[in-house]
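Hi V.,

You were right to ask for the full record rather than a summary. Here it is.
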Amino acid sequence: MSTPEQYDALIIGSGEAGKYLSWHLGSQGKKVANVEDKRLGGACPNIACLPSKNVIHSAKVASFFQRGSEFGIVHGDWHVDMEAVSARRQRMIDGLRDMHLANYTKNNAEVVMGFGRFIADKTIEVALNAGGTRTLRSDYIFLDTGSRATIDPIPGLVESVPLTHIELLELTVLPEHLLVLGGGFIGLELAQAMRRFGANVTIIERNPTLVHREDPDVTEGLHQLFKDEGIDIVTSANITRVEGTSGKSVTVYLSDGAKLQGSHILVATGRTPNTQNMGLDVVGIKTIPTGHFQVNDRLQTTAPGVWAMGDCAGSPHFTHISFDDFRIVRDNLAGGNRTTKNRQVPSVTFTDPELAHVGLSENEAKKQGIAYRLGKIPMAAALRTRTLDETRGFMKVLIGSDDHILGFTAFGSGTSELLPVIQLAMSANLPYSAVHNIILTHPTLSEGFINLFNTVPKKQA
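Predicted structure:
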């Protein structure tokens, strides 16, 4: 082993938590190396959150062309140019990469492109992408290695060379018929986008409903939305085998004898943490049965001086949660005592309309035996939706016996932007009346809060 290069901190992976920690420590004058084996900046700006929302917005524009007559717009022939859609996405990614490189330079954080693995206590060997190796050492090592799409062990699935979200977003030719394995959030977002571009789409879900953990009104609303847009949905599907090659012709066989045929197949059934082949046993880093690093509520692994953040640590798989992991580690390094316990986990499914949620759902409240009062309105009660002709959906709120907000769910156009108001009230431990009684601009979506809270039953005397 060559003499290790000494650093104040080593960060393996440049996802949301890893890059922000690199920039922060570098700005504090620490000697920092951020090791990344694939895409600088991690999944979000390169292959996941932002590219997918870029493509989804292009699909929304396509939907406006389809609905033009509703708005009094008469237009001639139009078509979707998938090469132009892809080029727009790539321009955004290129700009984000430049921004990331500038941040590393500005904050004096070194980037090392290669795959890192433990070879001794506090020591990493990096197989450089450009060839050769480097040996790096630090008393402080942070893992942010992310996750990847799960390929289920279905006979013939691997051989069919299925698309993941990465390859789907890079397509320059529209699939004739896309088969989507998985009725979760990623599958739904991309299924709708491809349908709006003009593809035939079939969603194949193993559970009885789409997004099966959500409340019944949510699953029913999404099911009806997709049905209205011409997307076929097969639930309670037990896939026995897959034949063919994605991009040419592929057939999915179900246990009930049904056959589903398409031109492409997309896997969107879950995520697998990137924790393999890292020499974990050398330093005593344990993983849990799901493959995630075992961490405590301060994100410390079972090896002294090693932390894990983001997807690989088993944190909820959202970029904003990975960013909060960074803040927890940052503050604790400075003597703080922040933990992952009881933190808010807001989520948005970027279908159109959007599904936004924070706090308890009705299903969760009932399962935990928590009493609540329900307020609920159709999105049409927020009059802004009528000006947009986007009245589909609802918003609802769960109120506890002390008048505090337990949870909020909104299925409607632009509802992602409603979450911060509710989150602030929940974080500040304010009663719902604090939101109910403020002056809200007319006409806005947030004005709907007034009507929403009007529907909350009064407390029993």
